[in-house]
Design brief:
Number of domains: 2
GO biological process, one term: amino acid biosynthetic process
CATH architecture of the largest domain: Alpha-Beta Barrel
Oligomer: single chain
EC number: 2.6.1.42
Helix content: 25-40%
Strand content: 15-25%
GO molecular function: branched-chain-amino-acid transaminase activity
Bound molecules: pyridoxal-5'-phosphate
Radius of gyration: 20 Å
Keywords: Amino-acid biosynthesis, Aminotransferase, Branched-chain amino acid biosynthesis, Pyridoxal phosphate, Transferase
Number of strands: 15
Mean pLDDT: 93
Largest sheet: 9 strands, mixed
Shape: globular
Protein name: Probable branched-chain-amino-acid aminotransferase
């Protein structure tokens, strides 16, 4: 808390102070070293308090940018190639020239890691926006500076204390012709609105349905259930093509655990034996309660535990 005040030299928002006690799927242990991190901003490593972008930045002004979340385990950024694939695909989709190739991005990530002395248990948010605008309006032609690239790394050990609670919300991650749910866009407002609705309902995170009412995803993670020994997740048509999601499917296939990408409803979900979330930060996070219904025993189930161990082995191999 102090660090936020230090960086921005202003009092904290009382509403958000109350929220700081809430459980999120991105809960991490406090780590004092994060006050002294260096952040890569357009080629220069800057102390946290000086790592700033302009109010004219397309990302700040309009949410016009893309990002990736990466995790360092035992000296290696997990699935870095897949993250770079997704980043470059998103850049192509939004017609943004990152101005760096994969090798340059890899070097910048390695330099930032080295400058911060990180060897494991670090999280990186790699952000690319359309850069500075000449005037405060939407047209991409007004973004005249070239992209803004930021590599922000923190020491980070997830510390989620119990299976989380989900609440179903009216917000959807919808059809590709509105805002494609496969874009890791800077603007997360749709997901933030979903998260706020879940929080108001007393839950930790939102369970979002697809346009047909089938269970889809949460506001920040992919969603799985386990029924009678089978692992089910959504078809993938309306959610983020999560890298952890893909790896969990791969792990299940290799381990002979039946896994299906399919439509399923809240009836199937409330009646599941287990449920869990996937994401780069938390790997696999058990879900204990959805809309006030206990899922299975309300604790992490044996299939989730097995997948979690197999995933751990995969990322530290
Ligand atoms: C909406 C949403 N779903 C799922 C994920 C998880 O994706 P990954 O496993 O690639 O971290 C993310 C993370 O970026 C996300 O924003």
């Amino acid at each position: 808390m102090v660090s936020v005040r230090d960086v921005f030299s202003r009092p904290l928002n009382p509403l958000n102070v109350a929220r700081m006690d809430k459980l999120t799927t991105h809960q991490a242990q406090d780590d004092a070293r994060n006050e002294d991190i260096l952040i890569w901003v357009n080629g220069t490593l800057k102390p946290k308090a000086q790592a700033m972008v302009s109010v004219y930045d397309s990302g700040f002004m309009l949410g016009d940018g893309i990002w990736e979340g990466l995790r360092l385990y035992d000296g290696r950024w997990s699935f870095l190639d897949l993250h770079l694939d997704r980043l470059f695909e998103a850049a192509l989709a939004i017609d943004l020239n990152i101005g760096m190739d994969r090798a340059a991005l890899r070097r910048a990530i390695a330099d930032t890691q080295q400058a911060n002395g990180m060897v494991s248990d670090a999280h990186c948010r790699l952000m690319v926006t359309r850069g500075l605008k000449s005037r405060p309006f939407q047209h991409p032609a007004l973004s005249v500076s070239g992209p803004t690239v930021v590599i922000l790394m923190e020491h980070s050990r997830p510390s989620i204390r119990r299976p989380i609670r989900l609440a179903t919300v009216p917000h959807q991650r919808g059809l590709p012709m509105t805002q494609d749910p496969k874009l890791n866009s800077h603007s997360k407002l749709n997901c933030i609105l979903a998260c706020i609705a879940a929080e108001k309902a007393g839950a930790d995170e939102a369970l979002m349905l697809d346009v047909h009412g089938f269970v889809n995803t949460t506001n920040a993670c992919n969603f799985f259930i386990v029924r009678r020994g089978e692992v089910w997740t959504s078809t993938g048509d309306y959610c983020m093509n999560g890298i952890t999601r893909g790896k969990v499917i791969e792990i299940c296939r290799k381990a002979g655990i039946p896994v299906y990408e399919r439509n399923f409803s809240l009836v199937d979900t409330y009646g599941a034996d287990e449920a869990f979330l996937t994401g780069t930060f938390g790997a696999q996070t058990p879900v204990g309660d959805i809309d006030g219904r206990k899922i299975g025993t309300g604790q992490m189930g044996p299939v989730t535990e097995r997948i979690l161990q197999l995933y751990k082995a995969m990322v530290t191999a």
